[in-house]
Amino acid sequence: MKNRVVVTGMGVCAPNGVGLNDFIRSLQEGTSGIRFHQELQELKFSCQIAGKPIFNDDHLNKYFNSLQQRGLNASGIVYGVMAGMDAWKDAGLTMASKETPDWDSGIIFGTGILGVDKFRESIHLIDEGNTRRLGSTSVMQTMASGISAYLGGILGCGNQVTTNSSACTTGTEGVLMAYERIMAGKATRILTGSCSDSGPYVWGGFDAMRILPNAYNQEPEKASRPMSASAAGFVPGSGAGALVLETLESALERGAHIYGEVLGGAVNSGGQRGEGTMTAPNSEAVQRCIVEAVENAQIQKGEIDVINGHLTATGKDAVEIQNWSAALERSGTEFPFINSFKGMMGHCLAAAGSLECVAAFLQFKEGQVFGNINCEDIHPEILEVVDATKIPRETIAYRPKIIAKASFGFGDVNACVIFKAYKNE
């Protein structure tokens, strides 16, 4: 018999909120975490705005001691540790003893690029012949698996501890990887999530590609405009989201709070064939991914009542809506409610999927569908498919039953996961 898998803990380090309470409030009120960055202006970026988590040293001291902070760059690994430890605590779990690992608990925590500032600092020291000044944490901070290794050591997890990386799809893919391992009986619980570095060395390539908006440097909160006719490109973001997945049996035995259930999902790739490229999705692959996710979750297409899309605020948003409509065979007023949280966070790259999965589950908790900001001028091609009432501009009171969450990433890779509200049975 396959194990049922539920979510019992969550944590966030997001541009629009560090910690669940601040994050919930921002989502409910439509508060943007996108800000002007003087550094980007000085470096002559066209887009001088971005989403970056804001916290102070007092907050950092809650997660890292003075020794750990020595030589530690405040980037993706910091965001990931903060979100991951918060999720573990939120689930009511404790660290394993110093002598024996927790063999039943694992970590799947993804990233796109990690420790880029530390890597740059290391190169500089090496070129100057100062290798000995690199410090003991330089390797951990610059290897992709540094985040899962760091969390694994803090928590003492003895099951699978690994890092996945699939561009913007990373976080959503990680949820499915954790779900599949727990469902198959190979682990009791897994901390999953993803993180992304911040700063010019991460965002510079996108600015060079001219796919970021450059007309909103004086009005950063208005720049990220998913589903809008005036969308001018995605705003880069950073941060981390984390979720604790575990068997329903374990959660009930512990008396844990249950945010919701993971029913299943699918991952695939368009192979960069047909209309699919490194930066554009293959629509056939996207539709297949959605359909396969529905089938894997053993639900009907008509049961999905809320979608949290990828929807990055580019010209491809209308195509994504068309793909959802074709895959679910629903349109007009029959289309589910749909939202994108990137209007408030920007596109947090590898962290996007996990942050948005956390936000999706919070809609179960709050009995709400969070609104879409900056889409007062919904793209006309979207309105040909979806009734405007299905794209709420403000948070509405509605208790979702089944939420579909998808991410469609750089390299033509896709992931779609299906979540369900949990009721005591």
UniProtKB/TrEMBL annotation:
Pfam families xrefs: ketoacyl-synt, Ketoacyl-synt_C
Span of the signal peptide: none
Gene Ontology terms, MF aspect: acyltransferase activity
Reactions performed catalytically: (3Z)-decenoyl-[ACP] + malonyl-[ACP] + H(+) = 3-oxo-(5Z)-dodecenoyl-[ACP] + holo-[ACP] + CO2; a fatty acyl-[ACP] + malonyl-[ACP] + H(+) = a 3-oxoacyl-[ACP] + holo-[ACP] + CO2
Keywords noted in UniProt: Acyltransferase, Cytoplasm, Transferase
CDD domains for the chain: KAS_I_II
Subcellular location: Cytoplasm
Enzyme Commission identifier(s): 2.3.1.41
Residue stretches making up the Ketosynthase family 3 (KS3) domain: 2-421
Family, similarity comment: Belongs to the thiolase-like superfamily. Beta-ketoacyl-ACP synthases family.
PANTHER family per the UniProt record, alphabetical: 3-OXOACYL-[ACYL-CARRIER-PROTEIN] SYNTHASE 1 (PTHR11712:SF306), POLYKETIDE SYNTHASE-RELATED (PTHR11712)
Record text on subunit structure and interactions: Homodimer.
Protein name as catalogued: 3-oxoacyl-[acyl-carrier-protein] synthase 1
